[in-house]
Amino acid sequence: MAWIYLFIAGLLEIGWAIGLKYTDGFSRLWPSVATGVSMILSVGFLGLALKTLPVGTGYAVWTGIGTVGTVILGIALLGEPATLVKLLCVGLIVVGIIGLKLSH
User: Which regions span the lipid bilayer (predicted)?
Assistant: First the structure.
């Protein structure tokens, strides 16, 4: 269950990171509420995962999922550039996430 909690926490991290863009500096009510709820739930699920996973592994995977997802959605939704270097670096993060999962 810890890995499932960690995956959910990572997805919620993507949600709040992208949500920050839509809050317009927390001046828009509903995007701000959704972003805040995503933040709280993300950290909550991370906490559940860390009950059994090592903190270094859990935190690295959580931020890795958040980073990869945020970069992909930034490209897809926000028109951010998809440069070769950016995509290669995201690939390295994915390899790191897989490596941490396999090493546990």
Answer: 29-50, 59-78, 84-102
Residue identified by tokens 């897989």 is: 98
Cβ atoms of residues 81 and 62 within 8 Å: no
- Eight-state DSSP code of residue 83: -
Q: Say what angle helices 29-49 and 2-23 make with each other, to 10 degrees.
A: 160
Spatial contact of 5 and 13, defined as CB atoms under 8 Å apart: no
pLDDT tens, 14-48?
999 999 999 999 999 999 999 999 999 999 999 99
Phi, psi (deg, nearest 5) at residue 26: 60, 30
SS (H, E, C) 9-57: HHHHHHHHHHHHHHHCCCCCHHHHHHHHHHHHHHHHHHHHHCCCCCHHH
Residue 104 confidence class, pLDDT cut points 50, 70, 90: confident
Instruction: Give the residue from 46, 71, 58 showing the smallest Cα distance to 97.
Output: 58
